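Hey L., structure's done. Input below.
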Amino acid sequence: MHLARLQRSTPFRLAVAYGLLFVTSSLLVYLVTYLLLRAEIYSTLDNSVTETYSVIQSSYAPGDIEDVVQSMNSFSRLKNGDRRIFYLGSAAGKRLAGDIAKFVPATGLQTITGERLGLPGNERFRVKTGTIDGNNLLVGESLEATEDLGQIILANFAWMSVFTTLLAVFAGLFLARRAQTRIDAIAETMTEISDGNMSRRVRLTGSGDDIDLIATQINSALDRLSDLIESMRQVSADIAHDLKTPLNRLKLILEEASLREENNESVGEQLRDALAESDQINATFQALLRISQIEAGTRKTRFASVDLNQLLRTVVEIFGDVAEDNAQTLSFDAASSPDCFIEGDKELLMQLFVNLVENAMNHCPAGTAIRLSLRHTGNHCLATVADNGPGIPADEHEKVFRRLYRLDKSRNSPGHGLGLSMVKAIADLHGMAIGIEDNHPGARFVLSWERPAEQN
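Output:
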């Protein structure tokens, strides 16, 4: 992977950015720590210098400067190397005691260089000066320890900064290469998908990180896309197959009408047959259009609370007489039907259950019992439409919801194969899961959805 490409990658930039942020924050911490430590050491030095100065000053007795000289000599003998300095001199500038050559005429605590005190080098000292009976007194202590400590902290920080920066760069390179490899795999998969290989999916690492999450969502979208493409292919083939016969019939009817007109014969019957065929074709397209509109979700604006208990009773009341005319029975399991509500479009939900009832009535023989029911299971509602007819083969359970799909492969039975497709579209719109079970004998369509929170 080229370095320029890595530098443009988000993981690399984030790693470097966090590295710089860490270095910057460490610098601020260092500065604050150094300043606090420096202030504390200065305070300690000032206390030490002031205390020593006070001890020496307290040894003075009026008219007896020798006690001060002896006290200074005692401190000089006890000092640690060159860390502390002392000076006692007359007002005329004659040194009476101490280890420095010059006196700096100042009052109170101050920082001065050794050069000003007549010492070699540029070492700095924290000193306190004053007078005792007209004599000049100076007590000081070196700042070398403070400055050495600052240099040690600075050196440690410099090494830490270098190490952190290198670590951030190499971590960024590693993360960028790893992430870019996975992103390239996603791009390669999408390229193959665009080239027509709809079976290809993004490989998951199982880490559960954000890239795996995105890959999972992409795979889900590809599964959906693959299903839609297959559905479109199937729908296109079924539309062509379904329309071929009625269009051919329509053509034959119109040709017959044309011949009859040339012979001055009545063409009314042919025109009526042509109108019926065109109505059938138009109904097919209208049903397809309605399914597409339902799947687009435009009807969600009309959602309201719907009492399915009452809705199923209405369906049974409307189609009960039709079932009797077909020598069938249609009933609703009222004894076990609880209050069951759903947020949805009442007209579409009515269409859903009407289609299921009509599907059972059209494909079951005389004597069939069709039963609707509602029940609760946990925090879900279940609605079923069951019959004891011939049933649906298990390998056809998923296929019957496809558009224009028919169990009658010859397509000689009435209908256009869109009733159950519309049922599936309406169920999906309302967040319902729909499936088919064997009713032993017959088929049972089961719809389930989560109960509203206020009903749980």
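The chain is about 55% helix and 15% strand. The CA atoms of residues 300 and 345 lie 7 Å apart.

-- N.
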